[in-house]
Amino acid sequence: MRYRLLGNSGLRVSEAALGTMTFGDDWGWGAAQDEARKVYDAFREAGGNFIDTANLYTNGTSESFLGEFMKGHRQSVVMATKYTNAAPGTDPNAAGNQRKNMMQAVEASLKRLKTDYIDLYWVHIWDQMTPVEEVMRGLDDLVRGGKVLYVGISDAPAWWIAQANTLAHLRGWLPFIGLQLEYSLIERTVERELIPMAKALNLGLTAWSPLANGVLTGKYHGHGSSEPGRMSSDMMKPFMPEQQRTDRIVAAVKTVSDELGRSMAQVALAWLRYRPVPVIPIIGARKLSQLQDNLASFDLTLSADQLTTLDKASRIELGFPHDFYAKELVRTPVYGGLREQILS
Questions:
Q1: Cα separation, 64 vs 24, whole angstroms
Q2: How many CB atoms are located within 10 Å of the residue 317 CB?
Q3: Span 93-118, mean pLDDT?
Q4: CA pair distance 149, 239, nearest whole angstrom
Q5: Which parts of the chain are beta strand (E)?
Q6: CB 106 within 8 A of CB 119
Q7: Which residue of the set 40, 57, 121, 150 is catalytic?
């Protein structure tokens, strides 16, 4: 396993993160403690140090398992967890980005994780109502109090993240160093605004659902494992893109997979390494065999022709203003007809 600095920080994290939403069977489809321990140990033995969880995952069981698993080597783990979400209930402050939920959630996570600090604390999702000043000041207080070392943002629009980090820099608060978002051959719309923003602000990029809920393994198209997926087809429909495009992408992945004699999952994960910005995939596994297959993607090399096959099948329209900038009628006057002579 190789390592990289996470965003504009000195934090060294492995080139893959272990996603632990599957740790615990509270939701009816996860891994029991023994199997979860095997997955965790295999990831650590491979050199992985970056662990991703959240307070809501399997009703807190994921964090509790990790608290047990980290005993004796907590200092060598980059432990990342999240706050914001809560199960439906009667308390309006049990979920959201606000300071009250933030402070209550971090204390509960610390107890379940059996630790006195969290390496990376993610805002799980933008709640669209808490003032940005409240979020960033609250997170900075956690850092100054020693309960959190770094902070990151997940599932938020580019404009809000840019606003948050600009405000943090102006006020002397710790800015976000990481961005977590859905990114895969299926989901590339993040390339319109979020990826360019991450590059401009030097945010470390972690990708959840890099296999698109199992779609890119081929299991829903008669390829790969015959094991039923974690989500039923009915559950997946709201998250599935236009079917014709999906079929085209899966077919392209299968073509490259057959050429290389490697699994479709490995091909899909390897593709992320060739993005314009470094991407750390969050690899989730219910079974040890799934983790081992995913980890094998890191020694897989894709040729230029294979990348073209995958990129062509999965391409998206960037829309305005990106496509506007590419028009010759626009480019010529912007650069006085000398764009090719200007080095940048």
A1: 9
A2: 9
A3: 98
A4: 33
A5: 3-5, 12-14, 17-19, 50-52, 78-83, 118-123, 148-154, 178-182, 204-208, 279-284
A6: no
A7: 57
Q: Are strands 12-14 and 3-5 parallel, antiparallel or unpaired?
A: antiparallel
pTM greater than the 0.85 cutoff: yes
How many Å apart are CA 217 and CA 212, to the nearest integer? 9
Q: Per residue in 285-323, pLDDT tens? A: 899 999 999 999 999 999 999 999 999 999 999 999 999
Token pair 């321990």 is found at: 37
Q: Give 180: exposed, middle or buried? Use CB within 10 Å, 0-12, 13-18, 19+.
A: buried
CB count in 10 Å sphere of residue 162: 15
d(CA 166, CA 201): 10
Distances (CA, A) of 69 to 41, 147, 198: 8, 20, 32
- Distance (Å, whole) CA 103 – CA 217: 39
Tens digit of pLDDT for each residue in 63-72? 999 999 999 9
The pLDDT value recorded for residue 232 is: 46
Catalytic residue check, 83: no
